[in-house]
Every structure is written in C-alpha cells, then in structure tokens.
C-alpha cells in the first residue's frame, strides 16, 4: 500500500486528545461552514465514534465527516433506530455521551424509539438531525417533519438551529445537558442552510445553563436523619438502581452496605454495580426478580432506595408496597421524590457524594438474623425455580442453562446486552456480573430490537471487553439488519439467540391470564444460520444439551463476530412472577 | 388533569416569560406536576398556590349591538353595577370590558347573554401572591 492515509488511526485516543485540547483552547476564531463546525464541536467534546445514516438534509455534514474520517469514525448502521441503540450501548458501557445522526423526515422519526428509550433509562445521548432549509420550514417540504415537536416529550432538551453561528453554543449546551445531573437524550435539529453557511467559529464548553440545576444540594440534616434511621433499623433493606452506576458511586455504595451490613437488592438497571456474588447482594427486585427481596420488601422496617425511581415493574401494587417501612430515598432528580412512593426522608443529591458523606455517620452492623431470612427464602426459590432453570432434568434446553454456561466460559467478565422478553429476565436473573456497567438492557421502555445494535455500540466503546448479546427470536428480527453493520465494521460481538419460536413473554401471559389463547405469538422463523452466514458471520445452531458447552466455547474462542442459535424449550415460563396489580409479597413461584 | 386557563406573558425581566396556569387538582398531584415542569431545562422555577394565597383577576370583552344600549334600560344598570367599562361605542356595536374574579365574569356573561351578545372573549388568569414570592429576588440575580 502506498497510501499515506493509513498513517492516521481513527481510534487513536492520543490523536483525539490533542485535537480536543487544541479546540478547547481555541480562543481565536476561524471562518468555516456550519457543517464543519459541527464536526469540530464533536471533536472538542471528545467524540471518537458516532452512529448514523445519511440523507439529503444532512449531506453537508456527511461531506465533512468524509474529510475528517481520520479523526472521527462514523458508523453506518442499517437503520436509524439501530444508530440510536448503538449510541446507547456505547454510552451505557463507557459512561460517555453516545452520538447519533440522521437526516430529516423519516431519518429523524426513526430515531424516536431510541430517544424515548434513552430518556426513560437516563442514557446520555446527543442526536443530530438535518432539517430542510429554513426558508422551507412549515411548508410541508419534502422530508420535512417537526422533529423538535415530536421529540419534545422524549428528550431532556432539544432545539432547532437555523443559523450557523448558533452551532457552537447549542452543541456545547447539548453535551452539557445530556451528561450532567440525571443524564438523558438531547436532540439538535439543524437546517440545511445553517450547515452551508460560513461563520467565524469559536468553541467554548458549556459551564452552566441559568434555568437548569443538574445536581440539587444535599442538605446535611436529611443526611443525618437518614443515618439515624438506618442506625436504628432492625430490618433494613436497600434497593439500588442505575443511579449508583451513573454517578460512579460503586465504591462508596459498597463501603456503605458493608459497614452497615444491609442486604441490598437491585433494579434491572442497577445490576452489576456490585458483583453478583457479593454476600450482601440479595438479588433483583420486581416482577421477575428474586423471591427473598420481593417478599421481604413487605417486612423490612426501613427501605433505603438509592438512585432508583420505584417503577411499577419494581413495586407491583403501590397500595400494598412496603407500607410497614419507613422509606429513605437518595435521589438526584427532585421530581422522583414522592412520585410513586411516599418517602419519610429524601436525600437529594448525587449518589456518590451523598453516600460518601453518609458513610462516617453509619454505625457498623451485621444484621445476621435478618440476613438469615433472605437465605431461607432463597432456598425456597432455588428449590422451586432456580434448580430447574440451571440444572434441568427434562429434555428441552432452558434459557437458564445457556446463561450458566456463558457465565462459566466468560468467567463472569462479559458485558451482557439483552433484548426484551423472557430471555431478558433470565439473562438479568442469572448473569454473573463481576464488573460494573455490564448489564446493558432496555429497562424502562422495554424496546424489542435494542440488543443487537446496542451490543455493537458497547463493543466499539469497550473493545477490550467480551460483549455477549442475548436476544429472543422475536426481538432479534426487529433489528436483524444490523448484522450488516457488524459485518462491515467487523465488530466482534457474540450474538446469542434463544429461540423458542414464540414471542415467549407474551405467550407466557396468554398462558397464565388468557387461557392459553396464543394469539399471534407463534413465530415461523427463517434459517437464522443461513442469514448470519449471508453476512459472513460464523454461525452455529445447538438443539441438544450435549453440544451446548462446545458451541459456547467455539463462540468465545472466535476472534470475529459469532452467531449462536440455541433452540430452547418452546413453552417455558419465567418465574418468580408478580402478576400485574399484585403485591410484591404475593410473588408466585409457579 | 385539565388546564382551566393559561396565560403567558413577558415578565419584568427581559427574555423571561411567566406562565400562569390554572388547574383543579389535589395538592399531591400538584406537587408531581410542579416537579415535572421544573425538570424542564428551560424552566427557571415553578410554584403553585391555592386560591386563598393569591389575588387574581381575569379579564373579558363583550361586543354588543349599540341599539340595545338605548332600547334596554336594564343593560345600563348592569354595566354600572358590575363595574364594567365601555371601551368604545359606534353606530353598530359597543365593547364592554370587565376585569374581576371568574364568578363575576360568569355572572356578567349570564346577565348580558339574556339580551344577546355579538362576541365574547376572556383571558387566562393573572395573579400576585399575598406573601412575598422568592422568584422576584431570583430573577433579579439574572439581570446582573
Ligand atoms: C417493540 C416492542 N414491541 C412489542 C413488545 C411487547 N413484547 C414484550 S416481550 C415480547 C416477546 C418477545 O419475544 P422474543 O424476542 O422471542 O423473546 P422471548 O420472550 O421469547 O424470550 C413482546 C412482543 C415490546 N416489548 N417491544
Ligand atoms: Mg422467543
């Protein structure tokens, strides 16, 4: 090769750093186009990868991406929804802001599902959309859609730019808002004329927005009151959520629970903040969570919620949720206080700072008798559910045993990116997490089709980590076209489809609550292996238990992407289960 | 939740708007609504007040056939008793303006409607609090 273009490594962090510093310090201006300014803003914010799909109204920006391809890597997904989920996966594993881009009209509307997902799961994301020229706005022009209007209820903030000179300030604000406080998605819509227009560019990072307070002040009296209540508790229970991960409070959290000896349970998005096998980790709360923490929620005397929002999938029927307990809520978002569960003590603030200040106020404790209750109930759950999931004696393969084998062969070090359905609940219940930010799943929105593109983003953000995607046969086919992205980018993700030939979770509800009327839940599936091979991805199918171990070994050993289909029992159910409207303590084991 | 009335106008500080929204809900619902409004990045501060905590006015305009003013003596009495003001009179119609509490405007509407109204329109509510509002000092800080 004689080309000199290979001298640049697009993903070399050193190169990006110098570019970032250069831009950060640029106090002088230079005359450039709006679209070039967008790239320079992204570089100044440290963006190395973005996901997107071109089209008419964003073409000037793509032209600049072409010129800057040695500094910023644009990943062409196969659908704009894929771009959003990839950006989410990128953000969830790295803690950085995910970036995606689309054209106006259908490109922009295709982003909406991912934006809503990021909003409800507090994922930092900046979406840039092209818009028709400002002289055409409001005229029903070709591919014009009011994306600012459409995205308002599902973004943390959004705005439309019609003049190039607004670009630096608005993009700086976008990144600041997306990542500060409780993170969330931001959408910036830029008209085509603003992309072409030349102006004097100068970038300054945003340091604050007058009407926006990302982190409320922690008041020391409520912190002391919380500590007093925790110290006096006989049967305290902690339920933590993603807030612990988002505020990078894993160490502080561990120190708090270890000092006070408090059994701690997680919401689906809180998973992996502390290792699964930590002695104080008593499992998942909620609809398909573990038996002990659900039942004992209605027996604890003090319920300590940390960075979680009492979602209805967590609480079951609110009228009978933890009524006997005093509730302490550590929370960054004041709007979450008393939203679903009335708190006795609210400690506003960033979890990391609050937990750090809480630690010295706590008295050491062990709560041995109380812990024993969790162990006793675990034994019941093991006997009725876990044993059959992980060590089945019947012929058909279970989803649980696949997870168990993945745990073993990845030594619990993999990031598990799961889709939505039965396999998701099984993945979250049985994945063995050792490292934080390892459970990447669509919690709040429950977006089928999330996993495959999210796994792409996760693997690209953390190439050193093993990333295993787990999807059902249904959800996999919602974004299956992203196999094209995996092939083109050679992203070595491990793709596992747990195929039960059903929209399993819906079928389970039909079985339990609709007298087995399986309306439109049975799937006639294509040959998944041929499809994967069509994208030149190595693939294998397992139908019998005796082949599972070796197949997973082949998958893990493979250096490139790998597709593994496991035919599992068609009509298995996920238990335990809190039926909708029931109380957490009425959780069913069968 | 239903919005009873909504008034938006510039505040005393340039670039800052004030919204006055009237709703009929419980206090616990209200706290959640305020939380969600305040969470909006562009919102500086959101407060709620009960009716007892504020002095408020609404305003309305009636357009009525001028001949009624002379033919129906009763109308002149109604205007006088209700403290409504005549904004303009011409050969065809006259315009009546009334500011007051919601019930006063409702009453005037009922009374005049008996004679026939050509046009009627009313504003959202504007209000001041009986106690000091912290937003005033907060907004001052913005000006500096
Ligand atoms: C986009 C979207 N559409 C519909 C649903 C409703 N839904 C939840 S789980 C599920 C079934 C998922 O089936 P599959 O992907 O095969 O996973 P399984 O439950 O069989 O493991 C459906 C349809 C959803 N969550 N998301
Ligand atoms: Mg399925």
* Termini gap of chain A: 64 Å
Give the H and E element order of chain B.
EEHEHHEEHEEH
What is the CATH architecture annotation of the largest domain in chain B? 2-Layer Sandwich
Domain count of chain A, please report it: 3
Low-confidence stretches of chain B: none
Organism (chain A): Winogradskyella arenosi
Enzyme class (chain A): transferase
Pfam families (chain A): TPP_enzyme_C, TPP_enzyme_M, TPP_enzyme_N
Family (chain A): Belongs to the TPP enzyme family.
Describe this structure in words.
The complex is a heterodimer of chains A (590) and B (144). By secondary structure, chain A is of the alpha/beta class. Chain A folds into three domains: 3-201, Thiamin diphosphate (ThDP)-binding fold, Pyr/PP domains (Rossmann fold), CATH 3.40.50.970; 220-374, Rossmann fold (3-Layer(aba) Sandwich), CATH 3.40.50; 395-567, Thiamin diphosphate (ThDP)-binding fold, Pyr/PP domains (Rossmann fold, 3-Layer(aba) Sandwich). Helices cover 38% and strands 16% of the residues of chain A. Chain A has a six-stranded parallel beta sheet, with helices on both faces. In chain A, strand 19 (538-542), helix 24 and strand 20 form a beta-alpha-beta unit. Chain A is globular and about 70 Å long. Mean pLDDT of chain A is 95; it is low at 1-16. By secondary structure, chain B is of the alpha+beta class. In chain B, 35% of the residues lie in helices and 33% in strands. In chain B, a hairpin with a 6-residue loop joins strand 1 and strand 2. Chain A binds chain B through residues 156-157, 177, 209-212, 333-339, and chain B through 28, 31-32, 35-36, 38-39, 41-44, 142. The structure holds thiamine diphosphate and magnesium ion (MG). Thiamine diphosphate binds next to helix 18, helix 20 and helix 22 of chain A.
